[in-house]
Specification:
Length: 367
């Protein structure tokens, strides 16, 4: 349902202690913002300047110019959040890149003007969309294309093309962009000291090198990454099932951050903040600790009863059952709600294969 995190069928593969939905809103946005929520207790001045130098930035506004959706009036915010599968630099340990890096995980995070409500919309990476013309890494124009996977935009033209495609798909102007890659995710988990989970059955996936027996585990960064990337160990191996597993892991991660108590440990706080700021790429307007911290605080102000976490309503494509397409008019209704700064009506997710009870329903998850 639109008002809840996904719940899955009768058997829970991952169990964790409950955590308030207010914290879930912040952590659903991006793993890197986990540590930034703790920066409220950190020293300013030289410490902030040190961390500012860690953050990678992309001037998306300059690259896209004026050919974009109108920015809705008021102070609501819309943020495109991507987890990339880049194998460049430190990420080469994850194997050879076949083609360019892609957006392994994608979410549009909407924060309401009144600062009390929010909606996180996950976009399945296999969603077939119209990709507008973009420029590649060499500055050459790549013609527009129909019926291509959403995550192909990042491979074609990086963050700028990803934002351009998201705006063309949604009609929503993205105020900000945040990206975390594989290595950044791993480092975040290791800086936390791992994440504790409990499995009621084994999860094994040779492709992601996941091999976990049933029972309790403290996952390091490498194993946690394998868990959130796995597809073959979940039912029919679809991306829709993986999104639900990722949502459940985010809640376990939120509980871990809540329990570690780093605010009272300046040395550990410094290490965690240093790792987090080094893990993210943002748009230029967001590329400072002060801006990211302000965003994290705003995420944390979302009231529990006014948080929504939904997956874009989709159905399996008739021509290619390995892909999904947005369900209409439901998908348009979701984006209309974001533009109007109102909650997404629950009926818009009914009948989606991404919802519990749909064709892609994975095993159950319980608290």
């Amino acid at each position: 349902m639109a008002q809840q995190f996904p719940t899955w069928g009768p058997r829970p593969p991952l169990r964790r202690r409950r955590v308030g939905r207010r914290r879930r809103a912040a952590y659903a946005a991006t793993g890197a913002l986990l540590a930034l929520l703790l920066l409220a207790g950190a020293a300013a001045g030289a410490l902030y300047l040190r961390f500012d130098g860690n953050i990678s930035e992309i001037d998306i506004d300059a690259a896209l110019g004026t050919d974009r959706p109108e920015d809705e009036p008021g102070e609501s915010l819309d943020i495109l959040v991507l987890g990339s599968d880049s194998r460049e630099g430190e990420n080469e340990v994850y194997g050879r890149q076949q083609g360019g890096p892609r957006a392994d995980t994608a979410m549009v995070v909407h924060l309401a003007e009144d600062r009390r409500g929010g909606t996180v919309v996950s976009i399945p990476r296999d969603t077939l969309v119209h990709r507008p013309a973009c420029r590649d890494a060499d500055g050459e124009e790549v013609p527009a294309a129909e019926r291509v996977m959403f995550n192909e935009a990042f491979a074609v033209g990086g963050p700028v093309c990803a934002v351009k495609t998201a705006e063309a798909m949604t009609g929503v102007r993205m105020d900000h962009y945040v990206e975390v890659d594989f290595r950044g995710f791993e480092k975040m988990i290791d800086a936390l000291g791992g994440v504790e989970v409990s499995l009621d059955r084994p999860l094994r996936d040779p492709d992601s090198h996941l091999d976990l027996a049933a029972g309790d585990h403290r996952l390091d960064g490498e194993t946690a990454l394998a868990l959130v990337r796995t597809r073959k160990s979940l039912g029919d191996g679809s991306d829709l099932e993986r999104i639900q597993l990722q949502h459940s892991f985010i809640r376990a991660l939120a509980q871990e951050v809540r329990n570690v108590g780093v605010v009272g440990d300046p040395r550990r706080l410094y290490r965690l903040a240093d790792t987090a700021t080094g893990a993210v790429t943002t748009d230029s307007a967001l590329a400072s600790v002060s801006e990211l911290t302000a965003l994290a605080r705003r995420l944390g102000d979302v009231e529990p009863e006014r948080l929504q976490t939904v997956t874009l309503p989709v159905g399996y494509d008739r021509a290619d059952p390995n892909r999904v397409v947005p369900l209409e008019p439901q998908a348009t209704g979701v984006w209309d709600a974001l533009r109007a700064d109102v909650p997404v009506p629950e009926h818009l997710t009914e009948g989606s294969d991404a919802e519990p009870g749909g064709e892609a329903e994975p095993p159950a998850l319980s608290g």
